[in-house]
Automatic annotation (TrEMBL):
Alphabetical keyword list: DNA-binding, Transcription, Transcription regulation
GO MF terms, alphabetically ordered: DNA-binding transcription factor activity; transcription cis-regulatory region binding
Organism expressing this protein natively: Methylophilus rhizosphaerae
Protein name, UniProt field: Transcriptional regulator, TetR family
Annotated ranges, domain HTH tetR-type: 10-70
Keyword Transcription regulation: yes
DNA-binding region, residue intervals: 33-52
Length: 203
């Protein structure tokens, strides 16, 4: 019986967090109410409060669950480090655009959290994982002599982050058709990363 109760409680929490993804994605943090989350979850407000003290706790649990479950980037052994970096950039861009739990949570963390410290911390956690993955692939590219050991490492790491953010903006906010968008995204990432092998001009 105790096992069944624990499983039921987890099922209810998942039901609440699944509903919260959509409500927070649609409304942002400030105007969302626990009543709206309960309605979307098809539960009573009492049932929601039985698991979470308020919407801050719901939002934090929702974001933590999705970020922890996000699949890590899987390198392709047949590809060079820079080609794997291109694939990583595309994977990251897709995570912000294609409808999914991670897309809804990231959209919320970047546009709808109103500087909540707990939620900002989760956004920074995501960004640290992104920077760590970029830096790992750049170090591999240097070890494989795709990039010079003399490169300004911090600068090229920031540059790779700017490729992700820039291509995302073009694909998400631009007027490209569905048929064009991912072809253009791949071309832009590839073109942008080619710049890493070119010497940096001096002022």
């Amino acid at each position: 019986m105790a096992r069944k109760t624990k499983e039921d409680a987890q099922k209810t929490r998942d039901q609440i967090l699944d509903a919260a993804e959509h409500v927070f994605y649609r409304n942002g943090f400030t105007i969302t109410t626990m009543a709206e989350i309960a309605e979307a979850a098809q539960l009573s407000r009492g049932a929601v409060y039985g698991h979470y003290k308020g919407k801050q706790e719901v939002a934090t649990a929702m974001a933590e669950r999705v970020i922890q479950a996000a699949s890590p980037f899987q390198q392709q052994p047949a590809l060079s480090a820079l080609l794997n970096l291109k694939e990583y950039c595309l994977q990251e861009i897709r995570s912000y655009i294609e409808p999914s739990s991670i897309q809804r949570v990231l959209f919320f963390l970047y546009t709808g959290i109103d500087d909540s410290p707990e939620l900002l911390h989760l956004r920074f956690t995501w960004e640290k994982k992104r920077i760590a993955q970029i830096d790992s692939l750049l170090r591999q590219a240097i070890a494989q002599k795709e990039l010079s050991a003399e490169v300004d490492f911090d600068l090229i790491s920031l540059y790779c982050q700017s490729i992700i953010e820039g291509v995302f903006s073009i694909i998400y906010f631009g007027s490209l058709s569905e048929a064009q968008r991912w072809q253009r995204a791949e071309q832009l990432c590839e073109y942008g990363l080619q710049r890493l092998s070119m010497p940096l001009s001096r002022p």
